[in-house]
Design brief:
rod-shaped; mainly alpha; two-stranded parallel sheet; 78% helix; Helix Hairpins; 236 residues; 2 strands
Amino acid sequence: MNQEIDALIELQKLDISIDGLKIKANEIPLIIEKAKTDFETKNTNLETLKQELARIQLDKKQKELDLHTKEEERKKHQSELNKVKKNDQYFALQKEINQVGKDISAIEDGILNMMDSIETVNTKIKQEQELIKQEEGKLGQEIDRFNGDLESINKAITGQEAHRKEIAARIPAESLTLYERIRRSKKGLAVAEIKKNHSCGGCHMTLPPQIVNEVRKLERLVLCESCSRILFWKGE
């Protein structure tokens, strides 16, 4: 019975280790996915800048069309100015020419401002592209490292599961079935040590003296009356 308890204790240690490794293995794809999502966010920022650049360039083209229209309008009025004979018509046309001139100046100022904006956005785009290039390199390195960690973890799991089979083979089928059932219902902790104060290491409830004595005799597997875990005694 002592060997059986020792095997169950060793089996539980392995199961806890395997469970921990599997949790880590399951977390790694999520970590990689988050890293990719964060990287895509940076790409989104670049796309936003490109869209802003396209909008400014489109507005600039429209301003240039407006400028051409106004310049043609001014030429037309200047041509008409040479043909009018009445003063009131002359002054009216002159007034329109002056207004068109102001409109042209405003449009030209707007185009200059847009050119400055285009230059600013282009600079931001180049900076963002350089940042993305650097981040892409870092992302690749991180993914390689995470995949390497995952490979190592999976190898460790395979090795420990092989060892587990060897240990499980030393445990009677009935005891192994009991262990597996308790383990499933108790979040992986099926075997509990009796503490020095004679409490269960699983549920921390104080155990009756007769239960402690039964466990120490090593004649059969004894379960905690409170949590139903398999009890074992390490000694004083």
